[in-house]
TrEMBL record:
One of its GO terms (molecular function) is cysteine-type deubiquitinase activity. Residues 67-93 are annotated as: Disordered. It comes from the Eukaryota. It comes from Meganyctiphanes norvegica (Northern krill). GO terms for biological process: protein deubiquitination involved in ubiquitin-dependent protein catabolic process; protein K11-linked deubiquitination; protein K48-linked deubiquitination; protein K63-linked deubiquitination. PANTHER family: OTU DOMAIN-CONTAINING PROTEIN (PTHR13367:SF27), UBIQUITIN THIOESTERASE (PTHR13367). It catalyses: Thiol-dependent hydrolysis of ester, thioester, amide, peptide and isopeptide bonds formed by the C-terminal Gly of ubiquitin (a 76-residue protein attached to proteins as an intracellular targeting signal). GO terms for cellular component: cytoplasm; nucleus. This is ubiquitinyl hydrolase 1.
């Protein structure tokens, strides 16, 4: 397996841009919602409109290059969230 350290967060920025501003943003959202609906059918879970919006906002937050953490902490303690979340993985399907 190959990998590299993306210190400038170039890939994360490109992913966030693609998920929010590209012509595929809306179809991507529909595919994500359909996939999550299929998964939720197994447990009987149903989201309200607000919950769908909140979940999507969370996925976009995960893809964002904005550092997380307490704003009062030193900048070296702030980091970005790992985007290996299973929901983000589903987007590539």
């Amino acid at each position: 397996m190959w990998g590299f350290h993306d210190r400038l967060l170039t890939l994360r920025k490109a992913l966030h841009e693609f998920m929010t501003r590209s012509q595929y943003a809306r179809p991507l959202w529909r595919r994500w919602r359909w996939q999550l609906t299929q998964t939720n059918k197994q447990t009987g879970l149903q989201y309200s409109a607000e919950e769908w919006e909140s979940e999507w906002a969370n996925v976009l937050r995960l893809a964002s290059s904005i550092p997380r953490g307490n704003k009062t902490e030193a900048s070296e303690n702030r980091s970005t969230t790992n985007i290996v979340d299973s929901r983000v993985k589903r987007l590539s399907n």
